Amino acid sequence: MTDHQPGGHMAAEIAQQPKIFADLVARRDQIAAVADVIRERKPRFVLFGARGSSDHAALYAKYLTEVLLELPAGLVSPSTTTLYGAQPDLRDVLLVSVSQSGGSPDLLEVTQSARERGALTVAVTNTASSPLNAAAELSVDIGAGVEQAVAATKTYSATLLALYLLVDAIRGGDGRAAAPLGDLAQSTLDGSVDAVSEAVQRYRFVDRVLTTGRGYSLPTALESALKLAETSYLAARAYSGADLLHGPVAAVDGETAVLAVTSKGRGGDALHDVLDVVHGRGADVVAVGSAASAVSAALRIPVPETPEEVAPILEILPVQRLAHGLALARGGDPDNPRGLKKVTQTR
């Protein structure tokens, strides 16, 4: 039995993502079959339930639902069910429960309760045999394989892709925007090596990081802050670019590291003025995304251009590498962050 190499699991799982994306796209018909049932039921409102990284994936799906399906969507507060016993009428509502493990007690209770109250329930998980899958009427298997590192990488990005394929199929799409993502993911990982290495050196001794994005990229900013906090123990905080100028920018100065997620499209366009202000206050800005070259930044990490609605599936990849590299550079093991477990039991 060999000794564990710090970060070995996380590095391997980051590298697996191009194949996972290609395999998931190849299974699109299975997801489309779930979408057919949803479309026949004609939901008038969509709720998403999730925790942790899955909550960021759910926020991405909320954007997809509101923009591509033009349906109102919201994020569930599980405690309204688990702690307060609320029993809202959920007829004509679609509840999508997003959980990598499918083992969180609060999401299980929310799903069971919602189904009893008339909701069409769908579980999106990486564990086909999970209690959550059994509780939901329909299920989508993201098929990322066992994830050994505590910090979610491949399960997060595969969840994004599964949710995109589901929403796209509900609107009658053919998944064409997702078709090249396997190859583009490999290009992203290969093409960002040098810039990520430079970012590791820039951020190695930083204690405070602010992440920001707009639109579809906001979930990436949130996930980026979580990854940096849980692997490198940085004080990382995420803000929408729109909210950043409403007060938090006052705390930005030359000692602030800012990771900005910006891809070509309306969200990236909306971030330009924000980054001009942040950069002007002396912050060290690292821009990640297909629009990184067009914004004020000290360092840019490139990502291939895609339709804006699938950009988050690629944007997060170099940030995962950054979190991995920073953790090692700061003497940690990103496979085993202190105080964390793979499945968190909450109610």
Automatic annotation (TrEMBL):
GO-annotated molecular function: carbohydrate derivative binding; glutamine-fructose-6-phosphate transaminase (isomerizing) activity
Record GO biological process: carbohydrate derivative metabolic process
PROSITE patterns, per database record: SIS
E.C. number: 2.6.1.16
Superkingdom of this protein's organism: Bacteria
InterPro entries the record matches: GlmS/AgaS_SIS, GlmS/FrlB_SIS, SIS_dom, SIS_dom_sf
Protein name in UniProt: Glucosamine--fructose-6-phosphate aminotransferase (Isomerizing)
Organism: Saccharothrix violaceirubra
